[in-house]
Write a structure and sequence with these properties.
Strand content: 15-25%
Organism: Qiania dongpingensis
Domain NAD(P)-binding: 8-192
Protein name: NAD(P)-dependent oxidoreductase
Largest sheet: 8 strands, mixed
Helix content: 25-40%
GO molecular function, one term: oxidoreductase activity, acting on the CH-NH group of donors, NAD or NADP as acceptor
Number of helices: 4
CATH architecture: 3-Layer(aba) Sandwich
Pfam family, one: NAD_binding_10
Order of helices and strands: EHEEEHEHEEEEHE
CATH topology: Rossmann fold
C-alpha cells in the first residue's frame, strides 16, 4: 500500500508517518520544507502547489494540515478543496485529520460540541472553520474521502496505549465518561482506516478506551 502524508512535519502528521512506516507500508512525506518525519520518500512541495500527477499512484492520501492563526483559519477549507480537486474521480482515498468541535451531541444531529456553553471561546473560530470545511467535504461525491474526528481532549503528548474506540458522527465517551485521545493512538486509528478503508464518504471519530 502506498500512502502519502500531507504536512508530514506536523505533530500528528509525523506520528502518522511513523505508525505507517512501523507497519511496513510504503510512505511518502509531503512537506513544504526540509523533511523532519521518519519517511525516506519525500515530495517537497507546498500543499497548494500539489498537482494530480504528484499524487498519482497513491492508494491513500492523508491530510494532516492544520492552521491556528485567525488569518490562516480559512485555509482549512481552501486546502481541503485543493486536495479534493487533485484526487477527484480517482480511486485514491483521501483521509482527513479532522476536529472534534463539529461532532454532534444529540441523536437528531442538530447540536454540536462547539455550540455548548462550556466550549472555550478561544477555540470557537478554529472549530467553526474546520466544521465549515467538513460540510464542504460532505458535498464532494467525486472523492473517496473519510474524515476522522478526534475526541474532545486531543493530547499531543499523551501515551500510546494501542487501544481506542471507533465512533461515528456523535461525541463518544469511554467507560470513564471521558472524551480523550492521544495523538499517538489517533495515529493508530488513522493508519487502521488507511489499511482497512471501510468508511468511504463518512465522518468517523475516535476516543481512548
Amino acid at each position: 500500500m502506498k500512502i502519502a502524508v500531507v504536512c508530514a512535519n506536523g505533530k500528528e502528521g509525523s506520528l502518522i508517518v511513523k505508525e505507517a512506516m512501523d507497519r511496513g507500508l510504503d510512505v511518502t512525506a509531503v512537506v513544504r520544507g526540509e523533511n523532519r518525519s521518519a519517511a525516506e520518500k519525500v515530495i517537497q512541495k507546498d500543499l497548494f502547489q500539489l498537482t494530480a500527477s504528484d499524487l498519482e499512484g497513491f492508494d491513500v492520501v492523508i491530510d494532516a494540515f492544520g492552521a491556528w492563526t485567525p488569518e490562516e483559519l480559512p485555509k482549512h477549507s481552501t486546502s481541503l478543496k485543493h486536495l479534493c480537486d487533485t484526487v477527484s474521480g480517482k480511486d485514491t482515498r483521501l483521509l482527513v485529520v479532522g476536529g472534534a468541535g463539529s461532532l454532534y451531541v444529540n441523536t437528531e444531529h442538530t447540536a454540536q460540541v462547539m455550540d455548548g456553553p462550556d466550549f472555550p471561546d478561544i477555540f470557537k473560530p478554529l472549530a467553526s472553520n474546520m466544521g465549515k470545511a467538513l460540510e464542504e467535504l460532505r458535498a464532494r461525491k467525486d472523492v473517496k474521502w473519510t474524515y476522522l474526528s478526534p475526541a474532545g481532549d486531543f493530547r499531543a503528548d499523551g501515551a500510546r496505549t494501542g487501544n481506542y474506540i471507533l465512533g461515528g458522527e456523535e461525541l463518544t465517551l469511554n467507560s470513564k465518561g471521558e472524551s480523550v485521545i492521544s495523538y499517538a493512538d489517533y495515529a493508530i486509528a488513522m493508519v487502521d482506516e488507511a489499511v482497512n478503508g471501510g468508511h468511504i464518504q463518512q465522518r468517523i471519530s475516535v476516543v481512548a478506551e
